[in-house]
């Protein structure tokens, strides 16, 4: 008997055991007609689908359960047969061992909704409210009178929060406005969300353990399968087989075939930049960035009803960004993503959710580019209506004032005042409040003769061994007019190249030559570590430079107002200049770091992923500052748009070499898509 016949036989036996004898003939007829060929698709066929009776739905539930059990048994049987064959090769044996380990980890563990808790302490001072107005058995979520406050500060103020199934939302707003807090509130279910909708909040990396990346992904999916099966049983017992909540459960369970777990997990990890060797590396031996990729693969495989992603591209190279953009562009359920990358939002989103400075949520159809166009048009029209309304009110008030105390004019004045009262009661048109505009600036630097930084026959490896060389025989120069973006896969050595330029590491062979007067301003993911978070930005900078800062004209001492002016240039304004930095968001701390870089009066900027914590207006301000900067630039970034704004040259780091790319960054993106077959 073949494998398919075995599965069918097992399914039939399970059905007969569970179903009532009086309905056996009817059930068999329903199964034979195959009444729901596409019921669990994206929903198009459901419009014309024949409505099923309660008994038919129960029958279908039992049939699906039996088929899954049969698949599981068949998968276990195949694994046993493969393990018992004498001619099985070593790779198959290794894969069998990995699968066995994954089973062992999942066995006996209690399933739980894959909704990661918020960061410890992040919601301790958070107060939120909202009324669920969508149906509790719906796949959509709608909350009215939705409000969130943290430390007494109102972030969301009596607004409408809405997520519709099958839509992909980009959440945008200023740094510190409350975007990440919103995701944490949803994940912690601090407001009512239907229980049948599972939520996955990707905000932390996978835990370091003895499990490999591949096993870690498979473990989570096995737990998810167990959770769904138990949830199915609970719903059948409490709500019956006609519950709409069962539809998505069946859809997910049908796609969770244990026989394909390893293959699908491998495909996801490969798309996120893992090689075969890295997939079989224990997560405890990985950096935080790679463990974050493992966590992202887990979330994508589970494919929750509501997927919450906070800056998912921060730990990815350009290739992985392209792959993720393509993958999420067809996410079938509900996605809410925070991203500073306009390019990424354009490729992924069907809708934009804008958090305004007044704490309101505004919704726009289309991607980020469509949002910018639509918002601009709406604000122009709103300002026209506002100005006309204000002009009308002014005209009426002038007429009322001209009436004075004349008795014959009093009635006309009262009539005109009633017009104003009715306008106020109906609600006046609000004046458009523009987003704050920051003017980042790096100071003028004195000129230096070229080349200011040169590599001569440079070879390097961390082990010092030739066979481990990341780079070999590098020869190039960087001048004050250089505008270079370094691209290439993770592990090619982009950050290593910057460290060689800085002198933090030394070549195994060759030398890095620097002008003796060269000042370098550098930014990387650890730059915030140099800040004393107990101090305010003003106190920190003042104490760091008690004798003044370096300028093109020598040392210059600054008074209080001048220090505050420097901070203001980078968007650290008002009370923020004087409050302890531990209260600040990462976005504000990043701006303090850039202010610190500017005080060093650099000749060259070496920037490694500078946009990770900046909002879009700040990224544009940074691009403007770089373009006005008279010195040189070497940039490593996953932000295609920023690279397009500031880079004159694209250098590809790969195969132990650094070479120019003949084209712009968008042509390089097309090249990456073609490489991946997208």
Automatic annotation (TrEMBL):
Residues 35-79 have a biased composition (Basic and acidic residues). It comes from the Eukaryota. Residues 83-94 have a biased composition (Acidic residues). SMART domains: AAA (SM00382). One of its GO terms (molecular function) is ATP hydrolysis activity. Residues 141-383, 453-678 form the ABC transporter domain. Transmembrane segments: none annotated. PROSITE patterns: ABC_TRANSPORTER_1 (PS00211), ABC_TRANSPORTER_2 (PS50893). Keywords: ATP-binding, Nucleotide-binding, Repeat. Residues 95-120 have a biased composition (Low complexity). Residues 35-120 are annotated as: Disordered. InterPro entries: AAA+_ATPase (IPR003593), ABC_tran_Xtn (IPR032781), ABC_transporter-like_ATP-bd (IPR003439), ABC_transporter-like_CS (IPR017871), ABCF (IPR050611), P-loop_NTPase (IPR027417). CDD domains: ABCF_EF-3. It holds the Pfam family ABC_tran_Xtn. PANTHER family: ATP-BINDING CASSETTE SUB-FAMILY F MEMBER 2, ATP-BINDING TRANSPORT PROTEIN-RELATED. This is ABC transporter domain-containing protein. It comes from Diacronema lutheri (Unicellular marine alga).
């Amino acid at each position: 008997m073949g494998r398919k016949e075995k599965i069918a036989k097992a399914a039939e036996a399970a059905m007969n055991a569970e179903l009532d004898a009086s309905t056996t003939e009817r059930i068999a007829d329903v199964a034979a007609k195959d009444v729901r060929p596409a019921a669990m698709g994206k929903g198009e066929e459901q419009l014309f689908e024949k409505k099923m009776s309660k008994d038919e739905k129960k029958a279908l539930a039992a049939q699906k359960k039996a088929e899954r059990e049969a698949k599981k048994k068949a998968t276990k049987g195949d694994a046993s047969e493969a393990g018992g064959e004498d001619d099985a090769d070593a790779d198959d044996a290794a894969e069998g061992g990995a699968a066995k380990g994954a089973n062992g980890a999942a066995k006996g563990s209690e399933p739980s909704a894959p909704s990661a808790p918020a960061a410890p302490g992040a919601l301790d001072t958070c107060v939120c409210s909202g009324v669920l107005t969508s149906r509790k058995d719906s796949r959509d979520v709608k909350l009215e009178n939705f409000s969130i406050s943290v430390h007494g500060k109102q972030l969301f103020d009596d607004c409408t929060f809405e997520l519709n199934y099958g839509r992909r939302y980009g959440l945008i707003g200023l740094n510190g406005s409350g975007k990440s807090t919103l995701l944490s509130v949803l994940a912690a279910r601090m407001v009512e969300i239907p229980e049948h909708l599972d939520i996955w909040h990707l905000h932390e990396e996978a835990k370091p353990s003895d499990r490999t990346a591949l096993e870690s992904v498979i473990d989570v999916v096995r737990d998810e399968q167990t959770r769904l099966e138990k949830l199915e049983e609970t719903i059948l017992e409490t709500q019956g087989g006609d519950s709409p909540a069962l539809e998505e459960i069946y859809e997910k369970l049908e796609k969770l075939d244990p026989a394909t777990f390893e293959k699908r997990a491998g495909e996801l990890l490969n798309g996120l930049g893992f090689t075969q060797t890295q997939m079989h590396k224990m997560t405890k031996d990985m950096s935080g960035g790679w463990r974050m990729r493992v966590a992202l693969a887990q979330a994508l495989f589970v494919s929750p009803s509501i997927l919450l992603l906070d800056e998912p591209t921060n730990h990815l190279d350009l290739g992985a960004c392209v792959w993720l953009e393509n993958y999420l562009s067809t996410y079938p359920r509900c996605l809410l993503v925070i991203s500073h990358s306009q390019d990424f939002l354009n490729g992924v989103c069907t809708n934009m959710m804008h958090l305004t400075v007044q704490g309101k949520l505004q919704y726009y159809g289309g991607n980020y580019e469509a949002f910018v166009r639509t918002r601009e048009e709406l604000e122009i029209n709103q300002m026209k209506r506002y100005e006309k309304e204000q002009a009308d009110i002014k005209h009426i008030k002038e007429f009322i004032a001209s009436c004075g105390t004349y008795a014959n004019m009093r009635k006309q004045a009262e009539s005109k005042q009633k017009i104003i009262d009715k306008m106020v009661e109906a609600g006046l048109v609000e004046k458009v409040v523009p987003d704050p505009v920051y003017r980042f600036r790096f100071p003028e630097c004195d000129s230096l003769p070229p080349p200011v930084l040169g590599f001569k026959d440079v070879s390097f490896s961390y082990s010092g061994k030739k066979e481990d060389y990341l780079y070999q025989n590098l020869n190039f120069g960087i001048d004050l007019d250089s505008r270079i973006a370094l691209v290439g896969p993770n592990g090619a050595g982009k950050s290593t190249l910057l460290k060689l330029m800085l002198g933090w590491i030394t070549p195994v062979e060759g030398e890095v030559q620097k002008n003796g007067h060269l000042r370098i301003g550098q930014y990387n993911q650890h730059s915030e570590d140099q800040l004393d978070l107990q101090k305010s930005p003003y106190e920190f900078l003042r104490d760091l430079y008690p004798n003044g800062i370096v300028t093109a004209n020598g040392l210059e001492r600054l008074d209080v107002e001048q220090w505050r002016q420097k901070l203001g240039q980078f968007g650290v304004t008002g009370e923020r200049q004087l409050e302890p930095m531990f209260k600040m968001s990462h976005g504000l701390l990043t701006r303090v770091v850039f202010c610190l870089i500017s005080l060093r009066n650099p000749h060259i900027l070496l920037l490694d992923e500078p946009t990770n914590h900046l909002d879009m207006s700040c990224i544009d301000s940074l691009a403007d500052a770089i373009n006005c900067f008279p010195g040189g630039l070497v940039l490593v970034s996953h932000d295609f748009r920023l690279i397009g704004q500031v880079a004159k040259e694209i250098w590809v780091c790969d195969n132990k070499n650094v070479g120019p790319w003949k084209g712009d960054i968008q042509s390089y993106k097309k090249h990456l898509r073609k490489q991946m077959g997208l």
